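Much of what follows relies on a compact textual record of a protein's fold. Each token is a code from a learned vocabulary of local backbone shapes. The record below shows the convention in full.
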Amino acid sequence: MNTANLQLEGLYIAVAAITNALVAKGVLSREEVDAALREAERTALTGDRASDGISAANREAIAFPARILALANRMAGESEVPSFAELARTVGEMKDERV
């Protein structure tokens, strides 16, 4: 596996853990986090890059971080975030539902 992919995997898990901590401390609600990540996904799919003639597959790749973090937010427990593998698999399964 490409080292950059592993670094991104670690970054997603770190951001998910930070988000979970913010929710646990009452700084943000799960709903506020979800709304922000859905806006990020919308921007990824319809923003400037989308109009640059970028392929649908590349737009999906740009939207992946927002999707995986939104899913982590929805699946997080009091102190745990699901594994990257579980989250990525679920995001992939959900892609079929969005099509």
Q: What stands out?
A: The chain has one domain: 3-98. The mean pLDDT is 86. Helices lie at 3-24, 30-46, 56-75, 84-98. The longest helix spans residues 3-24.
